[in-house]
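stuck on this one:
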Amino acid sequence: MALECVRNSDNVAQPLPKGGRGQASPTKTMQPLTHMSGHDILRSSLRFVLFVLILTIGATAAQAQWIPLNPVKEAATQPDGLLLTLESGYLRFQVNGDSIVHVVYSIEKEPVHHEDFLITKKSWPNADFTVHAEDPKTVTLSTSLLKIE
């Protein structure tokens, strides 16, 4: 047996009394749920869309506020690439070929070398690269096949 519900004058859904439709409370006028006006449907839909929008924006803002900035203090060209001095640490770009750049972030200027069993090649041929740092907000490292800004 399905439970039948009606909306009261406060627009709150309530189950029908056990006696059926004829014994509804005389103090409140009851309307069946199927008689929602277009205005009520539109208002409910807008509330749902607004709730989802606020939830999405709030989640994005909450995630973004916990990422601290680590600005670049200095960019120095090295014989094998580029060294960026950050507010906290160093970011090194080593050009190993026209399409290979080894990127290392470290707290120390000269990071401790750890033996690597996956990359066995230790020496790389010299690759031509250029560093452009004319714009104070953009540093560009370029090879014939790559461009890193």
